[in-house]
Amino acid sequence: MPVLSGKSHWASITSPNKTFEPHKWMIDLSLEGEELEKAKKIGLSIKNKGDERGDFVSISRKVYRKDGGENSSPGLVDSQKRPMENTLIGNGSDVNVLFKTYEWEYAGKAGVGSDLQKVQVVNLIPYGDDDDFDVVSGGHSAVDTLDDDIPFGNTGS
């Protein structure tokens, strides 16, 4: 099975993305250099929407098979191959993505599809990290406004 290394975007690994039908686990993987060339040789569809992802592939696994049975969720491990349960992967995390390929034909078109098997997180950027501001030394602190003499705060009187 092939493995591609790159930066993650819009990763839904621990729980499937249910925004659209069909529901699926998925990851957009930004690729450069040798990894981009490897994806092209495999035959994957390379996308570029002109945003921070640059050249990327979307790799996914549907929650439900055509027969109605449920697929297992893809694996998620750290750099030491230890399971990472309930970890949300933020955009820009360095990851390795293991997937299966298959050929498809539909409505006169054909291509190579991918089935997400496992994601290895090499460098995690936690989802939702608030890095908008730096700490300002000597600036106002909410702790400075606490008044120990008023145990229940402002009562409005």
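Second entry:
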Amino acid sequence: NNMPKPSLADFKSVYPKSKLDRNIYKIWRWLFIGKISILISWFAARLNIHPNHITYLSFFIGLAGIYFISKGGENNIFTGVLGINIWYLLDCSDGHLARYYKIKSNFGKFLDEGFGEIVMTFVWLGIGIGLYKNPDISIIFISDFLEISSNEYILISGAIASISIALRNCISGRFSANYVIKNKNNSTVNVSQESFYYRWFKIYWTNFMGIGGLQGPLLIITSITGHLGLLLIIYSSAYFSYLIISVIYFI
């Protein structure tokens, strides 16, 4: 409570260069979310708000977003998608604030990562439930084109996406550590040593798969245009394929 009120320039100066170098992997955060989250963090610092309080707020907004999405209907889904993007905005803000306060705690890291996993795991299931209740334009078109009388496939798509995210993160979290330990004496691969094509594929793939990349704006755009169902089917296939590739890789 006795910390001086920071200027915006001072607050921006604590942003690590390592994150700036990786902005290309999260273009939505780079161009939009990151700029607003810095302002929110700076304002919170002037009010002496603790980073964990922003983490709690972001989590509740994320849950509210999932709730509205799962209710179905154009207005509810759009409100829910905005809530998910606000959750991500605040999720970035608490990190800026923690760096300014020079706070590092396992509890704060647990809250930030744990709440994030919960929101991103269940948001796709929520989309599947909402579109099952009230199909959008793309679901109606697909059902008519394939002559499918039931919309249960969109509910299954949401479940597949959510389960794939949870299992893939579990595999990555558990087995990546083991892999690094076994190969701790091996030299690490420098980014400059990566092939040109691999690096650009990694940039495109990371942007496509992450909420901080193309996923955030695509959720907003497709919820407005009525093609969120098509987006769900695409991401369900992508997440399931990513899970299978991860299993094969670690085996």
